[in-house]
Amino acid sequence: MDEVAQAVANIKKEWDQSILQIQEHIKSIESCGTSGRGTEEANSLPRLNGAAQDALALLRSLQFKLDFLAQQLSTEEEMQSAQLTLEFWKEQYQTLHSSLRNANLQAKSNIRKAAQEERELLLGGGEESTIRRRNLQTKVGMTSAAESITESLRRTRQIMVQEVERSANTLATFEESTGVLRKAESEYKGHRSLLMRTRNLLSTMRRQDVLDRVILVVGFIVFISAVLYVVSKRIGLLYLQRKIAAAIKAGSAREIGKEIPGVGDGMNGR
């Protein structure tokens, strides 16, 4: 299993744990006001809602992480599985959000009933009512202080969750920028290699051009030499043919003179 797949598995495990936590918070909110301590439970309701909202924020963060990692999975099958899981998570998140809203409505109804019962009891006479009022005031003060501290911690945690989400967004942007830079570097290397090949090709073409010119010059010289040689040979042959023809003619005239003495003597007398 590669790092991305392992990260996806860890996110799924964290999602399941967060689901269990928020379900516990929803149950606690829904049962708020049913124990007969309406005022105390009314003061604890914001704390429970804060914890539930933190859990929902964590679920949103996990959805974002899964959506980001799903694009980096190595196989198409894993990507499709991650997308299906993400769709299921969105539906589950909406269901939990609706359950939380219904639980708050139920809790408010329970708290109103419990508060009404407490008012009726406190307005009654007797020592029991006095002791109960004192205990209630003490518990209310302690609960208010605890709720104030809890609310501060909840806000701090919410800020930390927001910072984590912002850091995740920054990291995603950084990863995207890194990918773009790597792609640009790869393209630059490709263009550089292409330029080197083009340069080598131009050098080869220059050498080939010089070689072609040398071959043309040498061929032209050889051709001219051959033409001159052929012309000189032709001129020599013509000259030789003329001499041979003249010799043949001269030999023929002597033979004729020998055969005809008068002609030969006349020619000699001349």
Automatic annotation (TrEMBL):
Residues 144-235 form the Sec20 C-terminal domain. It is a single-pass type IV membrane protein. InterPro entries: Sec20, Sec20_C. GO terms for molecular function: SNAP receptor activity. GO terms for cellular component: endoplasmic reticulum; endoplasmic reticulum membrane; SNARE complex. It holds the Pfam family Sec20. Keywords: Coiled coil, Endoplasmic reticulum, ER-Golgi transport, Membrane, Transmembrane, Transmembrane helix, Transport. Its main location: endoplasmic reticulum. It comes from the Eukaryota. The chain crosses the membrane at residues 214-232. It is found in: Endoplasmic reticulum membrane. GO terms for biological process: retrograde vesicle-mediated transport, Golgi to endoplasmic reticulum. Belongs to the SEC20 family. PANTHER family: BNIP1-RELATED, VESICLE TRANSPORT PROTEIN SEC20. This is (wild Malaysian banana) hypothetical protein.
